[in-house]
From TrEMBL:
This is Response regulator transcription factor. Gene3D superfamilies: 3.40.50.2300, Homeodomain-like. SMART domains: HTH_ARAC (SM00342), REC (SM00448). Residues 431-529 form the HTH araC/xylS-type domain. It comes from Paenibacillus rhizolycopersici. It comes from the Bacteria. It is found in: Cytoplasm. InterPro entries: CheY-like_superfamily, Homeodomain-like_sf, HptR, HTH_AraC, HTH_AraC-typ_CS, Sig_transdc_resp-reg_receiver, Tscrpt_reg_AraC-type_HTH. PANTHER family: HISTIDINE KINASE-RELATED, TRANSCRIPTIONAL REGULATORY PROTEIN HPTR. The keyword tRNA processing does not apply.
Length: 551
C-alpha cells in the first residue's frame, strides 16, 4: 500500500515563484545575497530587501512574502524578534536565519520560534541553495495540498466540517443532540503501512460498517467519512435527548466489539455532546485531539471529560537534550551505530514513561536534531543536509514505536552522510585518541600504547596527531596534565607531590621542571601567587592558603 501523499512539484523556475525577502542591516550583504545566487532557477522571486525587522514586517505584509532570509543580529528589531512576530502574525511564512555567531543558544531560540533552518557565516552558497530549494518545494506542495483539501472539504459536506465552511445542514441530519467520534487503527505504521491496497480497503470497510452496526440502535444514527485512510470521522445524531451515560454506554459497547480484522485494534476519541450544528467543526477537532491521549491510557474510547482530567495541572519532566546530543556526537565519531540506537531508545523510553504525548515527543526531537546538526557542523563535518521529511503523519505514525523508526532512519542517514561527506578518517582516529587520553592521562601513557589501541603504527599515529592538534603527543600530554595541576593547586589543600602523582607524574622533580617550563614558575610560586590574588580580591582564607610549608 502506497502511503506517500506527496504531490509532484514543477521544476524550479516553472509556475508561480515563491516570494522572498532578504533582511540584513548591512546593505552590501543584502546585495551580495540577492545577486550571488540565481534565485529564478530556484523558483524564487526576491521582492525586496529590508535593513531591520520592523521594515521587514511591513514588506512581508505589503508583498505577501512567503520566505524570509534574515541575519540574526541587527540594530533595532533583530532576527529572533522578527521570527517571533512572524510566527504570531504570519505563521505560514518560512524563515531561514544566517548568523556569524556560533552559539547554541541562538540556534535553540531560533528553532523554538519555528525557524526552518539556521546557517552560519560565511554562508556556503550550495548549502543555502539546497535549503531554499527544499523550502520552495514544501511551499508549493502546501499550496497544492490546500487546493486539494478545499475540494475534499466541499465533497465531505457538513458531516465532517459543520457550517464553518458556509454550508447549510441537509434535512437528513436533523436531530436534537449530536456527537463526533474520531477513530483510528492503533500501531498503524507497524501493522498496516505495507499492506496491499486491496486488503486494506477490506479493513476499512469492516471498520466503517462494524462501527455503524454497533452504534446505530434506538435513537442513534451515524454518518462517517474517511478524513484520512487511518482517520474515520463519524457524525452521530440522536432523535431524542439522552443522558451522557447513555451516550457513553453506547460508545463503549460499540468500540468494545469492533474488530476490523488482521489483528488490528481500533481506538477513538468522542467529543462533547452538543445541540447546535454550527459547533460541528469544533467538535470534530475536539474528537481528533483526544486521539493523542491514547498513549497515556489504553482504553478503547476517550471522552472529553477524560481529556480535561488528564490534562489538568499536567507537568512534564525536562529532558536533558544537551547530554543526549553529546552522546550522539560521540557515537557518530566512533561510527558506533549500536550506541546511537541505545541513545534513541533512551530518549523514547524517557518520554513514554514521563507521559509525553507523541506531538510533544516529536517537538522535543526536532529541537534535538537541530542542535545535533549544529554540533556536528562545528566539529568539522560537512554535507549533512538532506531532504528530511517534515513532521510524520500522526495518523500513520500513531505510536512511539512508529516515531522511533523515523528517528532511527534520520540517525542512519546522518551517519551515512558523515561517512560519505564528513571529515576524513584521520580526524576520526584523533578524536578517538583524545578520548582515550582523557581517560588515562593520569597513568604513564605512551604514544605507542595509544597507537596499539587504535591498531595503527606509532609513526602514523604521531604524524596525524601532530597534523590535527598542532602538537606532539608529549607536548599535548604535558599541557593537559599541567592544566589539571594548576586547577588542583588553586582549589585543593593537596601537597605538591600528591598533585604531581594525581596528574600522572611519578617523578616529583620532573613535574616541577615541566610545570616551570609551561608556566614560568614553580608549583609553590604559582600557588602563592593565586593566594595573593585571592586575598587582594577579598577572597579571605583559601584552601591554598592553608597549604603546609612542607611543600
Amino acid at each position: 500500500m502506497n502511503l506517500d501523499y506527496g504531490t509532484n512539484i514543477d521544476p524550479a523556475g516553472v509556475g508561480k515563484r515563491v516570494k522572498m525577502l532578504i533582511v540584513d542591516d548591512e546593505a552590501v550583504i543584502c546585495e551580495g545575497l540577492r545577486y550571488t545566487i540565481d534565485w529564478t532557477k530556484l523558483g524564487v522571486e526576491v521582492v525586496g530587501e529590508a535593513y531591520d525587522g520592523k521594515e521587514a514586517l511591513r514588506l512581508v505584509e505589503e508583498h505577501g512574502v512567503q520566505l524570509v532570509l534574515s541575519d540574526i543580529r541587527m540594530d533595532g528589531m533583530d532576527g529572533l524578534e522578527l521570527a517571533k512576530h512572524l510566527r504570531q502574525r504570519h505563521p505560514a511564512v518560512q524563515v531561514v536565519m544566517i548568523s556569524g555567531y556560533e552559539d547554541f543558544e541562538y540556534a535553540r531560540q531560533a528553532i523554538r520560534l519555528g525557524v526552518e533552518d539556521y546557517l552560519l557565516k560565511p554562508v556556503d552558497i550550495e548549502e543555502l541553495s539546497s535549503v531554499v530549494k527544499k523550502i520552495v518545494a514544501g511551499i508549493r506542495t502546501g499550496d497544492k495540498e490546500e487546493k486539494d483539501r478545499e475540494i475534499e472539504l466541499w465533497l465531505s459536506g457538513m458531516a465532517r466540517h459543520g457550517s464553518a465552511y458556509g454550508k447549510e445542514p441537509p434535512p437528513s441530519l436533523d436531530g436534537v443532540q449530536f456527537r463526533i467520534v474520531a477513530t483510528q487503527l492503533a500501531d498503524f505504521h507497524e501493522r498496516f503501512a505495507d499492506m496491499e491496497a486491496e486488503r486494506f480497503e477490506e479493513i476499512q470497510e469492516a471498520w466503517l460498517l462494524g462501527l455503524h452496526r454497533n452504534l446505530e440502535a434506538g435513537p442513534f444514527r451515524a454518518l462517517s467519512v474517511f478524513d484520512h485512510e487511518n482517520l474515520l470521522i463519524t457524525f452521530l445524531a440522536s432523535e431524542q435527548r439522552a443522558e451522557l451515560e447513555a451516550w457513553d454506554e453506547r460508545l463503549s459497547s460499540a468500540m468494545g466489539s469492533l474488530d476490523p480484522g488482521a489483528g488490528g485494534r481500533i481506538y477513538g476519541g468522542a467529543s462533547s455532546v452538543y445541540e447546535d450544528l454550527e459547533e460541528t467543526a469544533d467538535r470534530c477537532a475536539e474528537a481528533v485531539r483526544l486521539l493523542a491521549l491514547h498513549v497515556l491510557d489504553g482504553r478503547r474510547v476517550l471522552t472529553a471529560d477524560y481529556g480535561d482530567a488528564a490534562m489538568f495541572g499536567r507537568t512534564l519532566p525536562a529532558f536533558d537534550i544537551t547530554e543526549t546530543v553529546q552522546g550522539l556526537v560521540s557515537a557518530f565519531f566512533k561510527q558506533d551505530r549500536e550506541e546511537v540506537r541505545r541513545a534513541v531508545e533512551g530518549m523514547v523510553r524517557f518520554c513514554r514513561e514521563s507521559g509525553y504525548l507523541l506531538p510533544e515527543f516529536w517537538n522535543l526531537y526536532e529541537e534535538l536534531f537541530a542542535l545535533l546538526r549544529q554540533r556536528l557542523r562545528k566539529s568539522g563535518m560537512t554535507g549533512l543536509d538532506y531532504a528530511r521529511r517534515g513532521q510524520p503523519d500522526p495518523n500513520i505514525y500513531n505510536s512511539y514505536a512508529g516515531l522511533e523508526t523515523v528517528v532511527l532512519e534520520d540517525m542512519e542517514e546522518l551517519q551515512r552522510l558523515i561517512d560519505q561527506n564528513g571529515i576524513d578518517k584521520s580526524y576520526w582516529i584523533v578524536e578517538k585518541a583524545k578520548k582515550f587520553i582523557v581517560d588515562r592521562y593520569r597513568t604513564d601513557l605512551k604514544a605507542s600504547e595509544v597507537a596499539a589501541w587504535l591498531k595503527i603504527t606509532p609513526s602514523y599515529f604521531s604524524y596525524i596527531f601532530k597534523q590535527s592538534t598542532g602538537k606532539g603527543f608529549t607536548e599535548y600530554m604535558n599541557e593537559m596534565r599541567i592544566d589539571q595541576a594548576k586547577n588542583l593547586l588553586a582549589t585543593t589543600q593537596d601537597k605538591v607531590f600528591e598533585i604531581a602523582d594525581k596528574v600522572g607524574y611519578k617523578e616529583y622533580k620532573y613535574f616541577v621542571s615541566v610545570f616551570k617550563t609551561y608556566t614560568g614558575m614553580t608549583p609553590k610560586e604559582y600557588r602563592g601567587l593565586r593566594v595573593c590574588k585571592e586575598a587582594s580580591a577579598g577572597g579571605g582564607n583559601t584552601a591554598a592558603g592553608m597549604e603546609s610549608a612542607n611543600d
